Here is the input.
Amino acid sequence: MNKSNPTREYVNDVLDTTVDDGTLPPQLRDLLVNDFPLANLNGADRQYFRLYSENVGLMTDEAYPPQESYAQGSIGSACYGDPDYNAHARDTITSIKTETALLDHFARTSRAVNGWQQDKFSESIQTSRVEDNRSEEGEEKRGLARLLG
Here is the structure.
């Protein structure tokens, strides 16, 4: 743990998401930033975030042609008259990753309702400071006891 700031590692561990392995589209990665769990959301904010993430999911789905579509690869390029077009349907794994990223976003933002996550961090930091103070006091007494004894 970092000696200069013992809470930094804890906060980073709590906010870290293992869902983003670098293969998610940018719009989904944006939903997984560490700012959302640290927000102080009310019920209306939470509803907005839920609807927004659903819209991002729909836009992500629409960026890929359906499995049965002919508008994939070079045929899609010819259909659209775009030589740079090379979209292919998403495989099952990518679809699952998308759903998992949306669920992760939903779970992470639920920790922000009424500042819950920040309250938990404050409680943890206060507890850590009290424990640190107790251990320092104990060391001082043992040290004085050795000098006087």
